[in-house]
Write a sequence for this structure.
């Protein structure tokens, strides 16, 4: 770990602000030269999103696109992108943060920049990421906090006013929300030798109550459904920087399977970013095999569930033996099960029996 993490954070901010300023200067010079301003960026079209088997994640291909004010169809997104870049530079220079939702409303309220809705605003932010090859978190833009982390991990804050202050993540009995301060913090020390990633809040709370972090010597991470990018980045950091193996624990259904895979191999929507996936992470359940072996209470797969399983079956990220086997089992039995299904054997069964057996088997 760096001896001066707050200085590292300052350096990242300087680099980000410089890249935003450079973009502004480029547009200014184009206008000064009586050119229609333009921005070059990698194409995010579906045919330019490629699965790289070596990296084990989706990446953007080599095709580029030019967003040009000369093209009447580009004027609206070009204007939106320029405003978003300006807003991002304001955040960085003032050392402030904003949520995706706040960016959307700031555009409408401060500068009368029109977005059809937040999805359009979010999409423009992704365009800015692609154009500058930097994640939105470097711009100070984050999603709403909803995931959490708990365990023996001491962090050091780098956010203004808290530089150098340290906290152990066992200090809060409900876990610590993964917000901008935690996301940008430096990891100082930990006694943990693994990370347990849990999809659902109820199970996360159960594991804290049963002191699973001590019993399994683990850091616990709650994804709150599909894991936010900031949480996936923390998971990757724990694996890459600290060498901690990652074990993912989700509902036994196609959506739980995909939550695990996005942590492992990333998503098509974030194909322009290389530091979110954790290829060495392992999905440990709930498997279709577990439904059978543990005789878990189940629900029938819906047609929507079955359709999703068929899609996963042909997705290049799911070519591994375990993935194909478990998808086939889910399709064969036509059933799904939630994490809470283990409660049929008692509230502590999952900690006393299931997790020890699973961790030993992997």
């Amino acid at each position: 770990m760096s001896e001066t993490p707050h200085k590292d954070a300052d350096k990242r901010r300087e680099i980000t602000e410089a890249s935003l300023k450079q973009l502004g200067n480029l547009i200014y010079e184009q206008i000064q030269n009586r050119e229609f301003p333009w921005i070059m960026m990698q194409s995010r079209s579906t045919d330019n999103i490629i699965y790289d088997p070596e990296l084990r994640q989706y990446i953007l291909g080599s095709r580029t696109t030019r967003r040009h004010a000369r093209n009447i169809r580009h004027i609206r997104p070009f204007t939106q992108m320029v405003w978003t870049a300006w807003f991002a530079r304001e955040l960085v220079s003032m050392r402030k943060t904003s949520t995706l939702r706040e960016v959307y409303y700031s555009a409408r309220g401060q500068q009368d920049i029109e977005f059809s809705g937040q999805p359009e605003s979010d999409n423009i932010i992704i365009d800015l990421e692609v154009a500058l090859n930097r994640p939105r978190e470097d711009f100070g833009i984050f999603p709403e906090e909803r995931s959490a982390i708990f365990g023996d991990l001491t962090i050091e804050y780098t956010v203004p006013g808290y530089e150098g202050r340290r906290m152990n993540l066992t200090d809060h009995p409900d876990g610590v929300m993964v917000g901008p301060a935690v996301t940008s913090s430096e990891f100082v020390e930990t006694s943990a030798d693994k990370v347990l990633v849990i999809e659902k809040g109820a199970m996360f709370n159960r594991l804290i109550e049963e002191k699973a972090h001590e019993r399994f010597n683990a850091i616990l991470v709650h994804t709150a459904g599909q894991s936010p990018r900031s949480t996936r980045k923390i998971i990757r950091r724990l694996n890459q920087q600290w060498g901690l193996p990652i074990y993912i624990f989700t509902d036994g259904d196609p959506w739980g399977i995909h939550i695990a895979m996005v942590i492992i191999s990333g998503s098509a929507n974030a194909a322009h970013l290389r530091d979110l996936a954790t290829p060495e992470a392992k999905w440990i359940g709930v498997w279709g095999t577990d439904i059978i072996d543990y005789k878990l209470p189940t629900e029938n797969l819906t047609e929507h569930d079955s359709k999703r399983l068929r899609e996963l079956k042909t997705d290049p990220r799911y070519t591994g033996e375990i993935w194909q086997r478990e998808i086939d089992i889910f399709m064969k039995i036509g059933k799904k099960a939630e994490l809470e299904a283990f409660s049929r054997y008692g509230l502590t069964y999952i900690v006393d029996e299931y997790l020890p057996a699973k961790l030993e088997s992997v």
